[in-house]
Each structure stands twice: as structure tokens, then as C-alpha cells.
Design a protein that fits this description.
With 123 residues, the protein is of the alpha+beta class. The chain contains two helices and seven strands; from the N terminus they run H-E-E-E-E-E-E-H-E. Strands 3-6-4-5-7 form a five-stranded mixed sheet. A hairpin with a 4-residue loop joins strand 4 and strand 5.
Length: 123
């Protein structure tokens, strides 16, 4: 009985948070169905299914907007912005949480991370 109440309360709080986030920021909450995809999709011209554009990689090509971080979660100087997909937040060098953040993506700039659906860290 108590577990059912906790589960129902959690669902209500999650829905309230999503609605509040959308009202405050004017965009969908991370993880909601309306949130934009993190990977751009190439539009096929021959009617075949769309394939995600591979903008990841292990090289440090500065023409890519994001790359995979190193094994330790660090980002190279060419792509210093660390982004975390679970939270939908990115961190910039010099930020209070930057050094302890293990990024899942490394972006070339804050604008590139924002364009991919992330928001800036508040700390």
C-alpha cells in the first residue's frame, strides 16, 4: 500500500516538474517526448529511412560540433564544453562543477551544446 502511494506521488511530482520547467523556460523538460533529439538526422532524398548523422568521433576534428570525451570523461582543448545527457546540462571551463563533471559529449562551444538541446549549468 505504501509503495503504491509513493509511486503515485512520484508520478505527480514528475509531471508537476515537467510542466513547471516548460512554463519557466518556455521549452520542454529534458527527457520529455517533445525534447529535440541530441543527434541530427540526415534527410534522405531517395525515400529510404533517415540515418543519424555521425558527428561523434575520437579524433579532435574542430569541424565537428561535438566529440566523445576521453575514457576519463575529460574534453580536449578543441571541444572544452562538457555535456551530460542525463541532466541535459553542459558545463564550461572555469565553472564550479566543471572539474568534477564527467562529460558524455564534448562540444566546441556553449552555443553548439545549446543548439543540441542542453542548457547551461547554473553553478
Amino acid at each position: 500500500m505504501e509503495l503504491a502511494i509513493v509511486g503515485a506521488l512520484s508520478a505527480v511530482v514528475a509531471a508537476w516538474f515537467r510542466n513547471r520547467h516548460e512554463e519557466a523556460i518556455g521549452e520542454p523538460a529534458p527527457g520529455s517526448a517533445a525534447w529535440p533529439p541530441l543527434r541530427p538526422v540526415a534527410e534522405p532524398t531517395d525515400g529510404s529511412p533517415a540515418d543519424p548523422i555521425d558527428s561523434s568521433g575520437t579524433d579532435h576534428d574542430s569541424t565537428k560540433t561535438w566529440i566523445q570525451p576521453g575514457d576519463d570523461g575529460s574534453c580536449p582543448l578543441s571541444h572544452p564544453v562538457k555535456a551530460n545527457a542525463d541532466s541535459g546540462i553542459f558545463h564550461v571551463p572555469g565553472g564550479r562543477a566543471y572539474d568534477r563533471t564527467h562529460g558524455e559529449r564534448c562540444y566546441i562551444s556553449p552555443e553548439a551544446a545549446t543548439a543540441d538541446g542542453y542548457r547551461a549549468s547554473k553553478i
